[in-house]
Amino acid sequence: MKTVRYLAASCVAGLALGAGPALAAGAAAAPAATGSTTARPPHQAPVPIGRGRVLTGADNGRTVTVRPGETVTVRLNGRRAHGVTFSWSAPRSGNSAVLRQTDGGTTPTGDAGGRFRAGHRGTAGLGARRTCRAGHGHVCPHVVVTWRVTVKVS
Q1: Minimal CA–CA distance to 117: which of 147, 150, 153?
Q2: Are 41 and 86 in contact (CB under 8 A)?
Q3: Nearest 5°: CA angle at 38, between 77 and 11?
Q4: Residues 73, 79, 81, CA angle at the centre, nearest 5°?
């Protein structure tokens, strides 16, 4: 029963993170944008999700530049291995006047994501932490991994 509850929460969170860009753009084809198996004819262009930048774990330590009004989406993937889950915290902005969070959260599988809207010109740091959660009978290493990206709005 507990597994079903976690699976349902993970699916809902995944749909919420995946559907956000399509809903924000007012797309009529939201099911295709959320990972539906409905195939789109090859001659149709993909549904636009608006201007913005997607950041992942590979962007750690980088500096990116966006324009006011653009969206910055963060997608961090957790990892499960040998009875432990390496989970990300929800990403946060260090300066909400420059980079305001519009949504975000975490999943039971350790993934985390967030969406931020570039506002005033300036610089803001985005950050998250990855920690370990041990399953019954397992031990975690005492390691905390930080993820940080500097966003310049100009």
Answers
A1: 153
A2: no
A3: 35
A4: 175
pLDDT 10s digits, 111-129: 999 999 999 999 999 999 9
Could you tell me the CA-to-CA distances from 76 to 73, 109, 123 in Å, in that order?
A: 10, 11, 21
DSSP bridge pairs for 55:
74
How far apart, in Å, are the Cα atoms of 25 and each of 50, 91, 102? 6, 23, 14
Predicted confidence at residue 81, as pLDDT, reads 86
pLDDT tens by residue, 20-61: 333 333 333 333 333 333 443 444 333 334 468 999 999 999
Please tell me what DSSP assigns to residue 60.
T
Give the separation between CA 144 and CA 64, rounded to whole angstroms: 24
For residue 118, give both structure tokens. Answer: 């570039």
d(CA 71, CA 30): 18
- List, for residues 87-111, the tens digit of each pLDDT value: 999 999 999 999 999 999 999 999 9
Segments in the chain forming alpha helices (H): 2-24, 30-33
